[in-house]
Structures are given as C-alpha cells and as structure tokens.
Specification:
The complex is a heterodimer of chains A (259) and B (443).
Chain A (H helix, E strand, L loop, with lengths): L5 H6 L6 E4 L1 H6 L1 H17 L3 E2 L10 H6 L2 H17 L4 E4 L2 H10 L8 E4 H10 L15 E4 L13 H9 L3 E2 L30 H11 L4 E4 L2 H13 L7 E4 H7 L3
Parallel strand pairs in A: 1-2, 1-3, 3-4, 5-6, 5-7, 7-8
Chain B lengths: L1 H30 L11 H13 L8 H30 L5 H5 L1 H29 L14 H32 L26 H25 L7 H10 L13 H11 L27 H9 L5 H5 L1 H4 L6 H22 L9 H5 L2 H5 L6 H5 L6 H15 L5 H13 L12 H9 L1
The chains are: A alpha/beta (259), B mainly alpha (443).
C-alpha cells in the first residue's frame, strides 16, 4: 500500500477525493500513529482516493492560539493555507478534533475555505453509503463500550451522534458515562494543557474522567481524539486497569471490524 | 389624609425612579467602555435565543428541581408585576383596587392567581434559602461567594419572602374589611388563598385592620422601590440583563476562537510586504494585544459580567475547578464586574479614567487561574443566559503571552517547536510522513 501525497497527485495532474489532514499527534506520537494507520487502511481498503500533505503539513497552530500566542498561530495558518490553496484543496478529513475545529471554523476568516469533516463523521457516511462493510459478529459485538465526547467535536461543534452511530454499527453495547454529550467532562488536554504540567489541584482531570469511564463497567473506552486517547490511557493505567480496559479510537475499532 | 398619602407616594416613586435611572445610566456607560463588537447579524436566530433562553429558561432545565423552583419565582415576579401596576396607579390616584370595578368577577380570579404565584414564590425562596444555608449545595457555597456575594443572595431571597408575605397579609386584612363593609374597601369575590386566613384577623378592630392593610400596602410598595434600586448593585440584575444577553450571545460554533485581524494583517505584511500599506506616519498608535483590563474586553464581555447571577453552573461544570484548581469561571465573571464597577467609580470621581495602577489580570484574576483552563467550553455550555467566561480567559491569556511574555517554560518550548519543527514536539519535519513510509514497507 502506498499513501500518495498532494504533490504526487499534482505531478500526475490528478485530484484526490479528499485530503487526509494527519495532524502532529497523528504524525509523530507513537500511539496516535496507530490511529492514523488504521484510518488510512480503511480509506485504502474501501477505495477512497485520498492524499496527505506529507512533509508539507504543519501544525495548524491550535496549541499556540489557545495558549495565547496569536502571532505563532497566524504564521502557521498562513503557511498551511498557502499550501492548501496552491493545491486547490476542496475537502479535508482529519482524525483530530482540534485540527478539525481550527480548519473548519478558524481558517475561513484567514482565506482558507474548505469542506472539513471529522473522521468519525466520515466513517459514519462511508458505513451509511455501504462503502465500508463491517463483519457480522465482529470483535466488538455485544461488548460493553463507553464513548468519551471530545470537547472540540462535542460542545465545540455539536457532533454527538455520528461517532455513536458508528459504534452502534459495530453492534456494541453502548453505556454512557454520567457526564456525556453537552455535559461531557474534558480529558484535561485541551487549551494547550497537553504541553504543560497541570496547575496544582486535588487530582488530575484525566484521572477524574478515566475513573468515571471505568465506573460504567465498560471494557473499552472509545475516543475520537489523539489527545483524549493519551490522557485516558494514562488515567486507566493510574487505576491499574490497563490489562482489562482498552482505550481505542473509533477508527481503530472500525479497522478491526472490516468485512 | 388621602392627599398626604398620594403626595408621599408620588415622591417615593419619583425618588426611586430617579436613582434607578442614574445607576442604569452608569452601567450602560461602563458596558460601553468595552471594545466594539458587531453582534447585530442574524436577528431571527437572536430573537429565538432570547425567547428560548431568557423567556423560556431552556437551559435551566438541565437541572430540573432548581429549574422548577426558579420558574415559580420568575413567573411570580413577571406576572405579579401586573398587580404592581394596579398598586402603583392606586398610589398615584389615591384610590383603592382601581381595577376591581372594571374587571368585575374576573378581578378575584386575577388576584387569586397572583396569590397562588405569591405563595409559590414564597415557598421557592424558602427552599432556596435552605439549599444555600442548610443543605449547603456545593456550587452555592464556594470560596468566591464568601462575604458580600453570599449576603447579596440571602438578602434577595429574604426580601422576596417579605414582599410576598406583605402582599398576602394585605389581602387578608383587606377581605376582613370588605366583609365588614368598611368605606373604600371595594367588595370583591373571595381571593383564592387569603380568603382562607381571614379568621386570623377577625378579632381585630377596623382601625387595627386598616393599619395592617395600609401598613402592608406601604411596606410592600416601598420594598419594591428599594428593591428596584438595589437591583443594579446586585447579582439580581440578571432579571433584566438576561434578555439582552441572550439576544447577543454567540451564534458561531463554541469551538471557534475570535480572530485577531490586526495580527493576521501583521503576519500577512511580513510574508507579503508588497501588500502592506505605505508607512506615512499617520498609522494608529500601537494597540494592546489581548486584554489586560476591562476596557480591553468587548462590550459583550462586560454585559456578560453584569448579567451574571453567580449561580455557579459554569464552575460546577469546569473540569479544572472539579479537580481542585484555582480556576472558577464564575469568579472570572464576578472579578470582571467588580473591576468594571471600580473603573466606573474612578470615572465618576475623575470625569475620565485615571490610572489607578491596577488591572483585571494580576490584581483580580491570577495567572494560575488562567493557566488552568482547558478551553473545554463547559462553562459556556452551562450558562443559562449565554455568558462566555472562556472568551475573557482567552483574551487575558493572549495578553499574558504576547504582552508580558508570561508563559510557562513548557509552553515556550512548545512555541519553539511549532516555529522550528512545525509541530509542538521536538521531531524533525522530515519524519512527518514516516508512518506512511512504514505502511508501504509493511505492505
């Protein structure tokens, strides 16, 4: 399997169906790379003509903007928009809700207008259209699974149902946490917290959230964000439950269930 | 005697309206100290928000019990105001129960309905007092409420209990007087609630009853005049400002952060100098990036601060607060209002603002509080009247980082990585697609 870049498509005078915006976590973080590979594998298997920017992709600037460094954000945005506009990018899919939010809501004001879609919505569409076909009685059938709403997909962009629909398509037994959907509790990574120590407090936010997820009795915590995945995995480890409870991205679950 | 009462009443009404308008004018001026922000787009969506959020209290019903109690107080407050109109006109014209002859049999139903509402308000306020002071519900007993905010809340509730009691006592005495055919006391059908309590007063003389009825009437209306003037100094101002605040609340997705056009342009001119306007010395003075003080915030942030009734739904939804960090979104709103009031007093005293060496950030809101925010928007989502604490937090953070270079070492490293490696971690940009190469190799 060869993953083509926008440059390769352009060199052949072709245009892909969609640009897969990988994001920094998806590109470099070892755990998140698995999500990236799972999603790329699904796209490849069902024949979605997609491209990546490869070495031309840069941080969207989200952590810079949220921590207060607007200059750095604007620099990153400028460069990314220049690159994407030069390739005539129309549609973007990304597996990171932070990238999704910035690309969808914040780049248009800076001259970057694209149709941006989060990978869980994209997967739901592929399932609905019959392009992604799932195994009967796959690995997750009947399993007790809880779903963690990431802030930037949920409250940030009001996407609550698409990821749940994908889980339902996997025939899981979906159990909700006490705080879910609009009331969902943050994993603790947003607002550039991922890149610093938490401020002093009684406990860590990811410990609090993981404890709530474990209370449901689920054996899998489904996530839609590389940062949430990391934070919740750490929280599960803190409770010494890593042998019995897995934190998985929805794309990984779909990849394992492809017919 | 009647003429004296009439003159006294008009005097009281005049004084109370004068002072109320004066303070409202000050609040209006204070809000206008904020920066311009155009929020007039899409009026139909805005009216809808106002009807659903403010009038319909849609978001309150996330917590059904307080929502129902609040609905009782709110409905009571709004609807009983119709009765206050009668009381007001009675006072001005020196008449008694002006509407009774006009409405005939309907009048007793109307007053009966007001009485039911008054009783509900009374019960709800007592429950609220119990929740605050006996059950000590967590969000109503957090540290930022110590002192004046706690007293403010209790004072409002006690005042409502007293006002409603006066209204009911007045009606009870009135009905005993009616039954005795005392002059001026227009005979009506029995009122739904107070007609059951007339036995309490049956042993009293006409004179004593008139004193009770008149006393109740005067204390009730004076209480209302005082309450009117208390309102703009209190968190209770939300009963008015919830409406404009819901109208002007954000319509864009909550995840979107406001763009800074001036920095966008600066970056653009740096990258494409040919687009930069020629420097002619007439360029506007360098403005501050982000917000250091209330004047740097937008007028909507300041309206938010005056609309906040310190219910603490934001703080109880805040992940940082729930895990023991110093951040409390409610405190952000309270601090903004306190600082704005301080700036307002400064302007009252000096005609225009004279630097007092203080600012919203540092003197009111600490760096530690601001650093604890995960920008999860739970506070924004939780607010029943569309207040955005996150907007203020974001602007204060921008000031800290861009004007004071005040950021933790780890963030400075992250900035360096983003700038040099195009990723927040120290990886080589050449390895960005290494995973893709690995996938090819694996296949």
């Amino acid at each position: 399997m060869h993953i083509k870049s926008m440059a390769e498509y352009a060199a052949n005078g072709e245009t892909p169906e969609v640009l897969f915006w990988v994001g920094c976590a998806g590109s470099f973080d070892q755990r998140a790379q698995k999500i990236t590979k799972a999603f790329a594998q699904i796209l490849d298997k069902v024949g979605v003509k997609f491209a990546i920017l490869g070495k031309e992709e840069m941080c969207t600037g989200d952590p810079a903007r949220r921590s207060g460094n607007e200059f750095l954000f604007q620099m990153m945005a400028y460069n990314n928009i220049q690159t994407m506009n030069a390739y005539g990018v129309k549609k973007i899919v990304t597996a990171c809700p932070h990238c999704f939010n910035v690309l969808k809501n914040e780049y248009p004001a800076l001259g970057g207008d694209y149709e941006v879609i989060h990978h869980t919505t994209f997967l739901q569409q592929l399932i609905n259209d019959g392009r992604v076909r799932l195994k009967e009685g796959g690995e997750f059938k009947g399993k007790k699974i809880t779903y963690h709403d990431s802030c930037y997909l949920g409250r940030g962009n009001n996407i609550y149902e698409a990821p749940r629909d994908v889980l339902q398509a996997l025939d899981v037994e979906l159990v909700e946490m006490k705080r879910c959907k609009t009331n969902g509790l943050c994993c603790g990574a947003g607002g550039a917290q991922m890149f610093k120590e938490e401020e002093a407090g009684d406990t860590r936010i990811n410990f609090e959230r993981s404890a709530e997820a474990l209370e449901t009795g689920a054996t899998i915590i489904a996530a839609n964000c590389p940062f949430c995945t990391t934070m919740l995995t750490d929280g599960v480890k803190n409770k010494e439950k890593e042998d019995s409870v897995a934190v998985l991205d929805i794309a990984e679950m779909v990849a394992k269930s492809l017919a | 005697m009647h003429l004296v009462q009439q003159i006294l009443f008009i005097l009281c009404a005049g004084i109370s309206v004068y002072f109320f308008s004066k303070k409202v004018g000050e609040i209006r001026r204070n809000i206008k100290l904020g920066k311009d922000e155009d929020l007039t787009d899409n009026p139909s969506a805005r009216w809808r928000n106002m009807v659903l959020m403010a009038l319909g209290q849609q978001k309150m019903f996330k917590k059904p019990i307080p929502a129902l109690l609040h609905l009782a107080v709110y409905a009571g407050f709004v609807i009983i105001n119709v009765e206050i109109l009668e009381i007001f006109l009675d006072g001005v014209f020196g008449v008694h129960r002006l509407f009774a002859p006009m409405l005939g049999g309907l009048y007793a139903y109307l007053i009966g309905f007001f009485e039911v509402l008054a009783a509900l308000v009374l019960i709800a306020c007592v429950v609220f007092l119990i929740r605050r002071n006996v059950l000590k519900v967590k969000r109503l007993n957090q540290s930022e409420l110590e002192g004046w905010p706690r007293n403010d809340a209790n004072l409002i509730l006690i005042t409502e209990v007293v006002l409603m009691s006066l209204f009911l006592i007045m009606n009870t005495a009135d009905q005993v007087l009616q039954s005795r055919g005392v002059e001026h006391y227009t005979l009506t059908e029995p009122f739904w609630i107070t007609s059951n309590f007339t036995g309490m007063f049956s042993g009293l003389s006409d004179g004593a009853l008139i004193a009770i009825e008149r006393g109740g009437w005067w204390l009730h209306i004076i209480g209302i005049f005082l309450f009117l003037n208390y309102l703009p100094y209190s968190k209770h101002l939300h009963i008015v400002l919830a409406f404009p605040n819901a109208y002007y609340t954000r319509l864009r997705p909550q995840g979107e952060m406001a763009n800074m056009k001036e920095i966008q342009n600066e970056v653009l001119y740096m990258m494409q100098p040919e687009l930069a306007p020629p420097a002619d010395g007439s360029q506007p003075a360098q403005q501050r990036f982000g917000a250091r003080d209330v004047m740097d915030l937008s007028w909507k942030n300041l309206l938010d601060a005056y609309s906040c009734t310190e219910c603490g739904r934001c703080t109880s939804a805040c992940p940082a607060n729930a895990t023991g960090k110093k951040l409390s979104p409610r405190k952000i709103m309270m601090d903004t209002r306190d600082r704005l009031e301080e700036v307002g007093k400064n302007i009252n005293a000096n005609k225009s603002f004279v630097d007092d060496g203080k600012s919203l950030v540092h003197d009111y809101i600490s760096v530690e509080e601001l650093r604890a925010c995960t920008t999860c928007q739970a506070c924004v989502e939780a607010c029943p009247v569309g207040i955005e604490p996150l907007s203020i937090i974001n602007q204060l953070r921008r000031y800290l980082v861009m004007e004071e270079s005040n950021s933790p070492q780890e963030w400075n490293l992250m900035f360096g990585n983003v700038e040099n490696n195009m990723a927040p971690w120290k990886f080589s940009p050449d390895e960005r697609d290494k995973w893709a190469e690995e996938m090819s190799a694996e296949a």
